Amino acid sequence: MSLLGSVFNKALGRSINVYLAKEGSGYIRLTDVIDDAVKRAALNKTMAAFESGKLFNENDMKNMEQLTITNMGHPSDNDPNNHY
User: Fold this and answer.
1) Each residue of 27-46: b (16+ CB within 10 Å) or e?
2) Are 66 and 16 within 8 A, CB to CB?
3) How many other C-beta atoms are found inside a 10 Å radius of the C-beta of residue 64?
4) Which of 7, 38, 59, 69 has the lowest CB atom count within 10 Å?
5) Tens digits of per-residue pLDDT, 11-51?
6) What is the CA radius of gyration of the chain?
7) Which segments within the chain are labelled E, that is strand?
8) pTM value > 0.85
9) How far, CA to CA in Å, does 5 sit from each of 31, 77, 82?
């Protein structure tokens, strides 16, 4: 996993780390070659949804010590294959 940053978990009253998964079912993600601006955008999108309570309810958040982004699905104009 690659550390992206942290988000505030209001249920725990503290920040927790956000990671980008380096592999999953059927893929390996080369996190070192992903532009830092893309990683920041992923963290910012996750942070906004998490901290506003759109992703999880408070009971679930009480059990979270970290978040891991496993899917960054997006199309590519130059490559017809799925990008995660």
Assistant:
1) eebebeeeeeeebeebbeeb
2) yes
3) 15
4) 59
5) 999 999 999 999 888 888 888 888 899 899 999 999 999 99
6) 14
7) 2-9, 14-20, 23-24, 27-28, 66-69, 74-76, 79-83
8) no
9) 14, 29, 26
